[in-house]
Design goal:
Layout lengths: L8 H10 L42 E3 L5 E4 L6 E5 L7 E14 L2 E6 L5 E6 L6 E4 L3 E7 L2 E7 L5 E6 L7 E4 L3 E6 L2 E5 L4 E5 L4 E6 L3 E7 L2 E6 L4 E5 L6 E6 L2 E6 L2 E10 L2 E10 L4 E7 L3 E3 L5 E5 H6 L27 E4 L2 E7 L1 H7 L3 E5 L5 E2 L2
Antiparallel strand pairs: 1-2, 2-3, 3-4, 4-5, 5-6, 6-7, 8-9, 9-10, 10-11, 12-13, 13-14, 14-15, 16-17, 17-18, 18-19, 20-21, 21-22, 22-23, 24-25, 26-27, 27-28, 28-29
Length: about 375
């Protein structure tokens, strides 16, 4: 559970971001019309075990082609689970703490935190759990052609590898880089200085842009990435020649199938607040998925009558008995926290800390389903 302390850094950041926005609006995206319809069944791609930018967002949720959603459970100690999209038929698959979850051809591939970030796989029925790759691994992308991931060397520097789906024939592809994305025989790589692409068949690589990128996602319409220094989301043609801004501001970015999901800034009667939005790049229409509560509540979900704005601007008006003298925070004060949206087919999920989760389940941390309203899903 997140606890709001005396530090004002988070709220100062909110206010500074809000300075350039009008209330209840977000920065308008600069869009070029004519984005390809990536849902067109005529578009042929290699079958993969991930969707959109889910892996770059931690890979905590993944849809399967069997109608189940595979995820790291918030209600059961981060263990690997599956459930129907409506939350029914919940089944524990493994006691492993999983990240970078991929599902392909009846197998779940994931990184196991309990085993020093090794790569493992297990059948979707929970049988034949197998370790595939030792070592501290990350950014696992699974496709028909193999697994693409990075692994730390003895100097703690990531190196990009490719391996068969059984872990064999492991081969170094790009040294001193992390995997940013995999798409159609090309590995997109990055570090704090550049974003590049490695063509596996041609055994060639080239730099696309010299900047610090994050949350990279690629499809036939192009390359999408967050410029961490400018705090702007960009679209780049697959050839790297044309670059344009699609969103100014925003955080926790995930692009998938023509939609850009991100956390932005808005405000209500209590002051500034975080919101999670979906920007349709073809229509330039923004839909708000959830608004984060910007006031404190206790561990039973009861409002404390203290807003973030009051905490920052008028702390002298707060009852001193509610303040912990040891750290300056509220003694029993919790706050909501939202983050990445995960796409699983036509459904949207988000790991969050929500007051309604306490009321419904007794736990603040949860996975919420965001399509057709907000539902506490796990």
């Amino acid at each position: 559970m997140a606890k709001r302390t005396a530090t004002l850094l988070s709220l100062i950041l909110i206010l500074s971001c809000l300075a350039g926005c009008t209330p209840n609006t977000l920065p308008e995206a600069s869009i070029t019309p004519g984005v390809p319809d990536v849902s067109d069944p005529a578009v042929q791609t290699e079958r993969v075990g991930f969707e959109g930018g889910n892996i770059g967002a931690g890979g905590l949720v993944c849809g399967g082609d069997d109608g189940y959603v595979y995820y790291r459970s918030e209600s059961d100690g981060w263990k690997l689970y599956k459930a129907r999209p409506d939350g029914s038929s919940k089944t524990r698959i493994s006691n492993s703490i999983a990240e970078d979850i991929n599902v392909l051809d009846g197998w779940i591939y994931y990184i196991d935190h309990l085993d020093n970030n090794s790569i493992c796989k297990i059948q979707t029925d929970g049988t034949e759990e197998t370790k595939l790759t030792e070592g501290y691994c990350g950014n696992l992308y699974v496709a028909e052609s193999g697994m693409y991931f990075d692994k730390r060397d003895k100097n703690n520097v990531p190196q990009i590898y490719r391996a068969d789906l059984d872990g064999g024939n492991q081969k170094l592809l790009v040294p001193n880089m992390s995997v940013a994305y995999y798409y159609m025989g090309k590995v997109y790589y990055c570090n704090v200085r550049e974003l590049g692409v490695y063509d596996i068949a041609a055994n060639s690589k080239r730099t696309l842009i010299k900047t610090y990128t994050y949350n990279v996602s690629v499809d036939e319409s192009g390359i999408y990435y967050l410029d961490a220094d400018k705090n702007e989301v960009y679209h780049m043609d697959l050839d790297g020649d044309t670059v344009r801004v699609v969103l100014q501001g925003g955080d926790f970015v995930n692009y998938s199938s023509g939609n850009l999901y991100y956390m932005g800034i808005s405000s209500n009667e209590n002051g500034p607040c975080h919101v999670v939005n979906c920007l349709n790049l073809a229509t330039n229409e923004t839909t708000q998925l959830i608004e984060e509560a910007n006031e404190f509540f206790d561990r039973d979900g009861n409002w404390l009558g203290i807003t973030f704005k009051q905490w920052q601007e008028h702390p002298e008006t707060i009852d001193p008995s509610l303040i912990d003298e040891r750290d300056g925070g509220l003694k029993n004060g919790l706050n909501e926290s939202v983050g990445y949206v995960y796409v699983a087919g036509e459904h949207l999920y988000m790991r969050a800390t929500l007051r309604n989760s306490i009321i419904e389940t007794g736990k603040a941390d949860c996975i919420a389903r965001l399509d057709d309203g907000v539902t506490i899903w796990d």
